[in-house]
Each structure stands twice: as structure tokens, then as C-alpha cells.
Design a protein that fits this description.
mainly beta, Jelly Rolls, 37% strand, globular, binds fe (ii) ion, RmlC_Cupin_sf, RmlC-like_jellyroll, tRNA modification GTPase
Length: 185
């Protein structure tokens, strides 16, 4: 590209996407990056790469990422018919995007549908429900502990990255599936 278009503020208006090829870029610490940096992960859609693991009688989780250094875990939650995921309190941030159907929290007034984005903050206890005949699916990126309570408000269990890894690996072992290293950041 001969000249780069500049906006009135001086920056570029859009990334310089002219080269449909791999471009070598300068790197002061190439040896370190080559040794320690991983280029990202890829998890395809097949159940061999990550199966639907039952989460209670009416739900399943498809694990996509585990990060033990940051207690971060990402997955798709699938509730198969109208139902509830019990009251829980996050001790970290949650980001989510609806994929199919809708879900909501009894404590809030919004309803999240396909393509819609939500956040959940540490400290609030809430109760996820779906009213859809065909249930819901949503992608969740979660950080920190997730404390679950029974219907009387008694603490039951903490779900964190270790819980989610155990959930995935136990199912794989029981079903003769290989552990997919692409899930581990
Ligand atoms: Fe939540």
C-alpha cells in the first residue's frame, strides 16, 4: 500500500489490510517469544474436541478453555428445556453472549437472546432461568470462584477453574475420550 489513509485525528481509519500474506514484523525479544509464547488455541465444533458434559438433569456444559493462572474458564451452557441453574454468587467477572433461545435472571429485568451481550459482576447472587420450550445456549467467559447455594440460602459448593477441569476430565475418562490440550491455556 503506497500511502496510508489518515483520519483527521491523525490515526488510521482502518487496519492496513492490503497484504493477504504472512508479514514478518520486528520483534526485540523473538527468542523469548518463540520459547514461551503459545500462538492461541482452536477448539472445533465436534464432540471429540469437547463433548457436552451433563450439568444436572436438564443442562450440559461444553468446555472451551481453562486458565489455571487466572482462574478463568470459558464454556457454552446449554439448558435443554424450561429450567433453573441454582442461585450462585460470583467472586470474579463474567462475560456472556446468548447463542440460542433466551435466558434471564430472576433478580434482573433483562432477557438475553441470541447475539446479545451481558456482564455479571462479583458480589451479586442471582438465579439463572430459561422459559423457552427448547431451552437456551450461551457462551460464558468466567473468572474466579462461583459459589452455589441451595433454595434456603445455604452454601453448597464453589465452582472454579479446578471444578470445571475436573468436570471435563472425569467425563472424558468415564467415556474413553482423549483430553484435548487445546482447552488448557
Ligand atoms: Fe451468574
Amino acid at each position: 500500500m503506497a500511502t496510508q489513509e489518515k483520519s483527521q485525528l491523525g490515526g488510521i481509519k482502518a487496519p492496513p489490510s492490503g497484504a493477504f500474506k504472512i508479514v514478518e514484523v520486528p520483534e526485540a525479544h523473538k527468542n523469548m517469544i518463540d520459547q514461551y509464547c503459545i500462538p492461541g488455541t482452536y477448539v472445533g465444533r465436534s464432540e471429540e474436541e469437547s463433548p457436552w458434559v451433563p450439568f444436572g438433569d436438564n443442562a450440559a456444559i461444553r468446555h472451551l478453555a481453562f486458565d489455571v493462572r487466572n482462574n478463568v474458564y470459558a464454556n457454552i451452557l446449554w439448558i435443554k428445556s424450561p429450567g433453573v441453574i441454582g442461585t450462585h454468587k460470583h467472586r470474579g467477572m463474567v462475560w456472556a453472549i446468548g447463542m440460542e433461545g433466551t435466558f434471564r435472571y430472576l433478580e434482573y429485568d433483562w432477557v438475553c437472546g441470541p447475539g446479545e451481550f451481558i456482564t455479571e459482576f462479583p458480589g451479586h447472587a442471582h438465579t439463572l432461568v430459561t422459559d423457552e420450550p427448547n431451552g437456551m445456549k450461551a457462551f460464558f467467559w468466567m473468572q474466579g470462584a462461583n459459589e452455589f447455594y441451595d433454595e434456603n440460602g445455604n452454601f453448597v459448593e464453589t465452582l472454579d477453574v479446578w471444578w470445571f477441569m475436573n468436570h471435563y476430565e472425569t467425563y472424558c475418562k468415564e467415556n474413553g475420550l482423549e483430553i484435548n490440550r487445546q482447552l488448557y491455556l
